[in-house]
Design brief:
With about 400 residues, the protein is mainly β. The chain has a single domain, classed as Neuraminidase (6 Propeller). It contains one helix and 26 strands. β3 and β4 form a beta hairpin. The longest helix has 6 residues. The protein is globular and about 50 Å long.
Amino acid sequence: MKQHETAIRRRRWSRREVLRSALAGAGMVAAGPFLAGCGSSSGSNKPPRSNLSDVGPLLDPDANGVRLPAGFTSRVVARTRQEVIPGSGFNWHLAPDGGATFETDDGGWIYVSNSEIPNLGPASGGVGALRFDADGNLIAAYSILSGTSINCAGGPTPWGTWLSCEEFDRGQVWECDPFGERAGVVRPALGTFQHEAVTVDPVRGQLYLTEDLPEGRFYRFTPDRMTDEGFLDLTSGTLAVAQIVEGNEGAVIWHDLDDPRAEQLATRMQVPESTAFRGGEGIWYHDDLVYFSTKGDNHVWVYDTVSETIAVLYDAGELETPTLRGVDNVMVSVAGDVWVAEDGDDMQLVGITPSGLIVPLLQIVGQDSSEICGPAFNPDGTRLYCSSQRGTLGHPGGGITYEIAGPFFS
């Protein structure tokens, strides 16, 4: 297995690094060998070993209402409508959703989180950020995007930005600076539709996108060029839609769209033979494979970017008592574990190991009207971030963002 990391550093990346660095996932495992989502190779040939198959059963809820295996702990790092850092004047946003982590030069990291609410004005919605120092202390909190609407999931890029997706009919993708030093930029070339999530294949220089509708599609974007800095240029390119060829072992063909901005017809309707997916959710690239979930049928899919074939990795309907239901946000660790957050059901974050073992890692209790969002590891893989979107109140006013610490890897 190849080594991957999402060490997002504020430095100039070469074209070769951008295209060959490996992404591992709607949060990111980050820095060192753990930022599995975007980043440069650490130089080691041995990836970290996942301890997921060795964790014990979930124990009784802790003081934060989180059930965890022995050896793991939780803390609350932010609550909706409350100041993240006392006296800062910055309140955490409503309805925290998709997220990712990015390494900083001082050995710390930034966790970004979408706000899945309608646009309520120039200071609402968008994306918030939490900055931690090398010891894990929360040292800053701020907005990196505002005035947008229903920012659901998204995805990190290998060049250190966050792509935030708007989930409504005229939704766009916004490219954001996790450090908050540059304003977010809309990327209309990535299509106008009900966006859910996006991931980057840095080897072939393409992006994959999901659409959260019962008849949503699976898309691929191929940029026309690179930027002067050696990054993929998201200002122009070709948006294509997938068709699964019946009776051909999951073969996929791609149809270019003539109207990606949906000025005349919705993107999902432009190619009648394209395949409908029942509510596309989280998506993540890892090791030549693109994993994504569909909530309407409780599937986790895997698309092979080399063979251009697709298969079902997980189908809750095939199991008598499935552990994982309400599939939503997806990330993949550097060790190859596929992490899926539940929307509803029993509010668990569940891992699927490369061997097919299905393991609950955490469960949030007493919040049955909520969903788990934005799972992402910190740079050294010792902390995991996620949110309960509506918290104990069962509405956007009650969102809670957690940090889980423990022996995820060895």
